[in-house]
Amino acid sequence: MDLLWQGLVQGLTLIVSGDPALLRIVSLSLLVSLTATAIAALIGVPLGARLALGSSRGQGLIQALINTGMGLPPVVVGLAVTMLLWRTGPLGFLSLLYTPQAMILAQLIVALPIAAGLTASALGLLDPELASALRVSGAEEPRVAYEMIRAALPQVIVAVSAAFGRAIAEVGASLMVGGNILGQTRILTTAITLVTSRGDFAEAIALGIVLLALAFIVNAGLTWRARAAMYL
Question: What H or E segment, with its residue span, contains residue 232?
Fold first, then answer.
């Protein structure tokens, strides 16, 4: 109990004091996770709409791949991205390994299936007659997808929120491809892993509080946007 209390006090002290090292870690965490989430939303939401509205022969395979990706082990993602970016790998010439860009790629891979899968589920709950009516009125498929996304916008925002939660909570892949380098690739989750391995549980709790607060603020903003969308 004393350890938990010490961690709470230390966490609040770090937040209130504006510790420069913490601010660097927090800003990089936000940069990496928000960028990965934004790209995941830009790709995953239209992909989810296509899955919900399409009927192509490869539909089942794509859906199976997305469902598998929603539970993809982060260490497998980390291994795949590391091999891809390794100096002798296909993209080794880009020298992206152990950089924030590599971490964005890893978090994108784990967040994208969440955004696509939950978007497809959200649109699947809409009245199928809505899409039929849009097609009868002459709307092209991109327009049909756009209108369906608008109709399910609160649920789609929840899908994006879930993708962000998956990204910012990711540690295994980020650690493998980022290297946890102080001042360069250290984010909150990898910092927590490091201080825990040292036995500094109070600092780990403090960083955990900061991570939870950060996730809460972003998700609260997305939740507010989803609720506002219900009244549009």
Answer: none
